[in-house]
Amino acid sequence: MSTRRPMPAQPEAEPLRLGLRHNAAQFALLVAVNALVGGMLGQERTVLPLIGVREFGLQAYTAGLTFILAFGLAKAATNYLAGAWSDRFGRKPVLVAGWLVAVPVPLILIWAPSWGWVIAANVLLGVSQGLTWSTTVVMKIDLVGPARRGLAMGLNEAAGYGAVALTALATGFIAQAHGLRPAPFLLGIAFAALGLGLSALAVKETRGHARLEAATHATRVDARHQHLHDALTDREVFVQTSFREPALSSASQAGMVNNLNDGLAWGLFPVLFAAGGLSVARIGVLVALYPAVWGLGQLFTGALSDRWGRKWLIAAGMGLQALALAGMAAGDGFTVWALAAVALGLGTAMVYPTLLASIGDVAHPAWRARAVGTYRLCRDGGFAVGALLAGVVADAFGVRAAVWAVAAVTALSGLVVVVRMYETHGRARR
Which residues form the Major facilitator superfamily (MFS) profile domain (predicted)? Predict the structure, then answer.
């Protein structure tokens, strides 16, 4: 007669549930991870344009902006792949892969013997940012479900760009005290180590949450959306998001212009401020002010878009960005530039999470990650477009003329949103 005791019953896995409250721990962890992603970008914002001029002797603006061109092209392409890979292989493997690519970036920037090495580092940074930032966006959308999507994107982007601002500010003061290299990039080494560790050991896969939402998703039946079913091919997702579907394509072009602005701010604002006689520390304050307001503002604007709707917040934000850029081009001195930076950050805060939320509103959960990837392909292609446009205009007519040109493009983009985009948020449509 056997005396073997029966095995204790294994606890059943807790069923998946959508919503911020039910997934608060993982959501907060992903917010922290995206802050580290932003820190990797922020390590360059103040210091790298000055390194190009002072250490490598770059005189042509177009040549000096090649690192942003390389970053933008790499990040845009990787954003698209990240969406497809997240649907195919899962979110977590893509996130971890992005951090592995990030590890050598600060080391290359510290030891780069020529500008070509800096460009190579920014290709790696673009790949890393495309994989990590895109995936944290998709994972948060997975977790919260449709009701709080704007709030989720506001928190995500606030963490990322708040970290960009803080790191840009810190590196400015570090560079003032210890030089442009290597001290500012030691922060990047720490960020990469923390991001990789948290992503590999603590972050959980969220693809199951997307499947849960897809199982209960009500496909739109009106004539405008009858083609947006759950079985679109990769090509169909790309075409709908980039060109055909009015809200998705309007968001994609607005996102591209928004990052065109950011590429201009990243590459030319430090040069403009230095030409105005400001110290590296004061340049760091101005460079940090714009993403700081951008980051903090998104804590409110994302949630407001859940209440007020997406379209008019986007259109108003693009208009405010255009006015701020005009003020930056026309003004002079620390105070005027600081006010313009605050306005530019506020306008960007109105636009950035709201665009992502509108993509999530329209895209079916079955192909939402691919839609987000396509949108981010278009949006971060703006870095490359901005580097080329700003560099060519600045070389021909000066830095201020480049800022004026981008202000005009931004105003036109806002007009496209007014004319072409419809309201995407369900409660606002009622």
Answer: 27-425
